[in-house]
Amino acid sequence: MADFPSLREAEYDGPSHHFHPEDSVGAQCKTCHMIERDYMGIDGRRDHSFRVPRLDLSVTLRTPNACSDCHTDKTEDWAAEAVATWYANGRHTEPHFAQTLEQARQTPAARFDDLLGVATHADLPGVVRATALDLPAQAGSPEMAGRNQPLLTDPDPIVRAAAIPLQRFAAKNAATLRLAPLLSDPLRTVRMAAARESPGLQVSGLPPDMNRNLGSAMREWQDAVTAQADFPETQLVIAGMGLTTRQFGAALRAFDEAVSMDPQMIEAWTMMVRIHSAFGDREAARTTADAAIAANPSDVSLKLLRADLQ
Q1: Domains present along the chain, CATH in parentheses
Q2: SS (H, E, C) the chain
Q3: pLDDT tens-digit readout, 29-75
Q4: Mean pLDDT score, 83-112
Q5: What is the reported pLDDT for 257?
């Protein structure tokens, strides 16, 4: 048991643990702890996380569970009650990170303390901790950026990269001091994440070595973007960089390319209309809005946007 310190010593390969007939499908460890799901519609893969099933979360959060894979004629409530009976003091009595993430999706700023608790929980998987940081990235504050700072040096590179966007809410000089070291991070993902925030940094006063790191990281990020330029989502990224650097012509071209690939990208249409309006070209704004409505005739937001241009 020394190799598995969190696992209590017990008999696991028996009905007292799995509560199914021996040698049945339900008695196999993988059935409950490595559930299978189809990817791309055809490719069945098992979940190697080997988590303890949480049927209570299926009831409250509608998460998938192993029991329903076999007991298709039963409800999630039935399965949750069975597990609660088998394990009176089981994991269903403990909090779960999914509950925090679900509660924070609508108001991440108000739930920042809880999200930060998940992000700093070193025993959780890196992808979970990074998700907790991603939620408040669009609605942060200088105070949140300051409290988030220690995670910029987290041992997990996924967490370091996810902690970077919140620094855009910090004062420019503070963000620069915090993010400049990450431009030479050992992991490319982290370097590119820092480079994406560079337009908001105080780069003019950087030492020569940090300027070189910035240039190198920017090239890596631009190469990665260029390699995926045939995706409309990538064009939105390019357009966003154009807006940040005040290259509005480049932003318009990227937004236009995005809607030519995917006419249903409402946010791209909206930004083009607003850019034209901001520069006083009402005719171009109206023409763009009309094209957007023609491509998305049922979208109410575009019709309201067009009405404002009368």
Answers
A1: 15-93 (no CATH), 97-227 (no CATH), 232-307 (1.25.40.10)
A2: CCCCCCCCCCCCCCHHHHCCCCCCHHHCHHHHHCCEEEECCCEEEECCCCCCCCHHHHHHHCCCCCHHHHCCCCCHHHHHHHHHHHCCCCHHHCCCHHHHHHHHCCCCCCCHHHHHHHHCCCCCCHHHHHHHHHHHHHCCCHHHHHHHHHHHHCCCHHHHHHHCHHHHHCCHHHHHHHHHHHHHCCCHHHHHHHHHCHHHCCHHHCCHHHHHHHHHHHHHHHHHHHHCCCCHHHHHHHHHHHHHCCCHHHHHHHHHHHHHHCCCCHHHHHHHHHHHHHCCCHHHHHHHHHHHHHHCCCCHHHHHHHHCCC
A3: 888 888 888 888 888 888 787 888 888 888 888 888 888 888 989 89
A4: 87
A5: 95
